[in-house]
Structure formats: structure tokens, C-alpha cells
Amino acid sequence: MEIDGYLLDDPEAIDTPAFLVYEDIVQHNIGEVLRVCGSVDRLVAHAKTHKSTDVLNLQIAAGIRSYKCATLREAEMLAEANVDEIVIAYPMLHPRKRERLVSLMQKFPNIEVKAIVSTPDHLAGLSESMVASGLELGVYLDLDTGMRRTGAQPGAEAGEIYVQAAQTPGLRALGVHVFDGHTLYKPDEAERQALVDTSIEYMHEVWEIAERHGIAADDNLAGGSWSFHLYLGEDANKVRVTPGTWVYWDSRNATIPELDFKVAAVVLGQVIDSDPGMDTVTTDLGSKTCSPDQPMEHRFKLVGYPAAELTAQSEEHGVLRLNGETLAVGDLVLAAPGHACTTTVKFPYALVVDSGGQIAGRYDHDARDR
User: Fold this and answer.
1) Is 96 in contact with 130 (CB distance < 8 Å)?
2) Helix (H) or strand (E) holding 349
3) Which of 70, 321, 354, 356 is least surrounded by Cβ atoms within 10 Å, i.e. has the fewest?
């Protein structure tokens, strides 16, 4: 079976749906992120997409030693692989989360573990945990530059929280963390660049406030998959970038014209029914399989069938309008997820496909749980 360059030997031997990762494309993407960044020192790679020690080891072998994550299980996976630096980019507010954070820091004292803060409650909770444990935690000010999800508001509020962080026992203020998720799904680079320029202005405002108070802010993190490369004009000694989905990429990210990452992860599915009168086929690619967080038409794209459009999903069924494409009951298909991260987590492991289309092993999703 070969569809648009995706080779898979003996696909009938694989039960569907199955999560496949093409190892040569993963290696291409690792090389590409290093090429774009210009230096491994500019990169803090996110672990949220692959959630796998096996993929992590490929990145470590390429020299990537600093990582970002969203969950404590991801942080634990990173620590178990003995990386140099772990940034937990999620508020460590709940007491159980803070207990696990302390345990992680105590178990792996040689790894730099860092966190984000954006409210006095974050500062108070982390300070209590660190002081009680005799630890010090480096923290970034999480700055909301337009996504409206988490983060201090730019200007006085952000500056005040940063100064408070620097004065809080058990904490060490490092700099600013910017995740500009509002740049997502905007293929026009100029539109994204304008949003990034605004984020940079807000970040610089925090630096200026910090400087007036004699506080350093020399370690800053910025960007996601759609914007990270647009921050590389900032001072290389002061700003690092934190792309997320790059290692697997996906069909929505593939609409970014200026980046050369390739979709490494696809889902093998099968056509299980058809309705010629409605010009539809039904696959086993349901909402428990592919990108349930995305709008229906963007949850996946069938590789090699560009006109086919997903019109409905239930838990185990995905209905597509063919729009001139030809598929029959029993046909096997490859679906490029619209969001790789929320597809990976649907499977306990990925089957690894080598350059010859053979199944060469599996990548266990070790950090699938929180």
C-alpha cells in the first residue's frame, strides 16, 4: 500500500484504527526544527505531542536537552530520561500537583525544573511548598498576549506579578513565558508576524519594569508551532522558542507555507460502509480516534483523497462526503490528523513504520496519563 509517499507493507495485518508514525519523517522534522532554530540552544521542545520516551530519545540523540511540558506525567517522563531542563507550562496550583512537583525535584536534584506563574495564588502555593521542602523553584511570568486562556495581563498587572515573584520566598523569577495560541490557523505569515510583534512589545514591557526594580529577566520563552520561528530575531541570549507539534506535525499545521515540517503521524482506518445515493462512505475513524477538539471538517484529511470531507463523527464512525473521490467498502485509508496531540493520546502506542514500509516496532505513549 502506498498513498502519496506513505508506504505500508501488508496493511491488512494491522487492525484498524491504528496510529502509525513514520520514523524517517520524525527524523526529518527533528533536523528541520534544528535548522530553523539555527542552534539547539534556542530550542525548548514540547513533549505534549508524542508523549513517548522512544521519541524523546531520538530528540536527545540529536542534542536537544531542554524541554517543555503540560502535565506532571510528561515532566516525570522527561526526568526519567535525564534531560537537563524541564519547564512545566501549566499552573501548579492544586496541592497534589505541588506535592508531585516537590517529589520530582527531590528525586532529580540535578535537573533544572521550572514552572509558570500568573497570579498571587500561584506564588503563594508554590512558595509554601518550596519553603517547606527547602527547595527553590525558577518561575516564568506567564503573559497573556492575546490568547485569553492563562497569563497575567500585559502592562502593570504583569509587571506587578513579576516583581512579586522575585520577592517571594522559595521562588526565583527568570523571565517571561509567552504562548500565543491566537496565532494558530492563520496561514498568512504577515498576520502572524503582526501578532508576534505585539507579544514582543508586551514582553519587553515586563523587562523594562523588571529593570527598574533591579530584577533580572534574562531567560524568556516564546511561541508555539505557528509562531516560534518569528521570535528568532530576538536576542539569542535572552529568548528561546518553544514549538509544540513540530515532531509529528498535522494536516492543519501543514497549511503554514514557510515551514518544511512533514506529517509523520497518521491513522490507518477502513471504509466500513457506503451510501452512494448520499455520496458518502463511513470509516472506523470516529471521535475516539482523531482530533475531537477540532471543528468537524478539520479533524482529519484523508491522504490521497483531497476532496473527501469529514461531515459527521460518532464515537467509532467517521462519515465522509466523497466529492468526486472514489472509495469502496473494505478500502484502507490513511488519515492525517487535524491535531496530532489530541490524536496521540487516543492510542496507548504508535506503530513505527520504517522507510521501506515495514512495521519496525512501537513507540509507547508513556506520558499518556496526567
Assistant:
1) no
2) strand 349-353
3) 356
* Predicted TM-score (pTM) of this structure: 0.97
Distance from C-alpha of 162 to C-alpha of 119, rounded to nearest angstrom:
10
Residue 210 in grid coordinates: 523588571
176 — pLDDT class (breaks 50, 70, 90) = very high
- Write down the pLDDT at residue 299: 98
Q: What is the pLDDT of residue 310?
A: 99
The tens digit of pLDDT for each residue in 83-105 reads 999 999 999 999 999 999 999 99
Sequence spans of domains, the chain: 2-20+259-364, 23-249
Cα 214 from chain centre: 34
> What whole-number distance in Å separates Cα of residue 238 and Cα of residue 51?
28
Model confidence band, residue 204 (pLDDT cutoffs 50, 70, 90): very high
User: What is the DSSP secondary-structure string of 76-106?
Assistant: HHHHHTT-SEEEE-S---SHHHHHHHHHHHH
Q: What is the CATH number of domain 2-20+259-364?
A: 2.40.37.20
Task: Fill in the DSSP letter of residue 120.
Answer: H
Q: How far is CA 227 from CA 108, 138, 144, 199, in A?
A: 32, 25, 15, 11
What's the CATH code, domain 23-249?
3.20.20.10
Strands 349-353 and 18-22: parallel
How much is the pLDDT for 198?
A: 99
